[in-house]
Amino acid sequence: MQAKKEEAKFGFTPSAENLNGRAAMIGFVAALITELVTGQGVLHFLGLV
After folding, report:
1. Distances from the Cα of 37 to the Cαs of 8, 26, 27, 47, 48, in angstroms?
2. pLDDT (tens digit, 9 = 90+) per residue, 13-43?
3. Residue 3 has pLDDT above 80, yes or no
4. What 8-state DSSP symbol labels residue 6?
5. How far is CA 24 from the centre of its chain?
6. CB atoms within 10 A of CB 42
7. Distance between the two ends of the chain, CA-based, in angstroms?
8. How far apart, in whole angstroms, are the C-alpha atoms of residue 13 and residue 7?
9. pLDDT of residue 18
10. SS3 of 48, please?
């Protein structure tokens, strides 16, 4: 009987990459909505430019 391989708890794991991709998609959509509502880019809206 083979020993079960332990999964990594950190690093570039498929679940971590999926979570990162989903967070990036949510951030991108939020930036687009902010730009559409305010008429300014995100950096202008935050006062960074």
Report:
1. 42, 16, 15, 16, 18
2. 999 999 999 999 999 999 999 899 989 888 8
3. no
4. P
5. 3
6. 15
7. 62
8. 9
9. 94
10. coil
pTM, rounded to two decimals:
0.67
- Name the band, by pLDDT with cuts 50, 70 and 90, for residue 4: low
Q: How far apart are CA 30 and CA 46, in angstroms?
A: 13
d(CA 10, CA 13): 7
Residue with tokens 């930036």: 31
Q: Comparing C-alpha atoms, which of 15, 14, 49, 45 is closest to residue 30? A: 45
Q: Which two tokens stand for residue 43?
A: 């950096």
**Whole-angstrom Cα distance, residue 23 to residue 8?**
21
φ, ψ of residue 4 to 5 degrees: the values are: -75, 130
